[in-house]
Amino acid sequence: MPEDRAADRFYQAEMVPRLTGLRRGIRLDVAKPDGDDRYVAVSFAGIYALVVWFDGGESLTVALPPSGGPGFDEGAQKVRA
User: Fold this and answer.
1) Are 38 and 60 in contact (CB under 8 A)?
2) Cα atoms in the Cβ-side hemisphere of radius 13 Å centred on 48
3) In angstroms, rounded to a whole number, what is the distance separating the alpha carbons of residues 53 and 2?
4) pTM over cut 0.85
5) Which of 39, 44, 35, 34 shows the shortest CA–CA distance to 14?
6) Interatomic CA distance for residues 75 and 43, integer angstroms
7) CA nearest 14: which of 53, 57, 63?
8) Which of 27, 32, 63 is nearest to 45 (CA)?
9) Residue in 17, 25, 16 with CA at minimum distance from that of residue 48
10) Cα 57 to Cα 46: distance, rounded to the nearest angstrom
11) What is the DSSP string of the chain?
């Protein structure tokens, strides 16, 4: 199945090089917005990784600035300027 092959490619490209760090609690936080495999992945609870794949025609927004939430105060705006 194509999904299985995509998961295998993800594991080889992203997980295998980081296995030692992941076992020590280092967090996986990766986005691959171009190429044949497009995905965003994060690890959580020390043993899980959540990966979301996107079709080639979809637009990815990997990060957005805060909108009125934490970090949006006047001091944070000055630091960003």
Assistant:
1) yes
2) 4
3) 12
4) no
5) 39
6) 31
7) 53
8) 27
9) 25
10) 32
11) -HHHHHHHHHIIIIIGGGHHHHHTTPPPEEEE-SSSSEEEEEEETTTEEEEEEE-TTS--------SSSTT-SHHHHHHH-
**Residue 16: what pLDDT?**
94
Report residue 34's pLDDT band, with 50, 70 and 90 as the boundaries.
confident
Give CA separation, 58 vs 2, 38, 54, 73, in Å: 18, 9, 6, 32
pLDDT at 61 over 80: no
The identity of residue 45, as a single letter, is A
Q: Which band of pLDDT confidence, cut at 50, 70 and 90, is reported for residue 25?
A: confident
- Cβ partners under 8 Å of residue 15, min gap 6: 22, 28, 49
For the sheet with 29-32, list strands across it.
Answer: 29-32, 38-44, 48-54
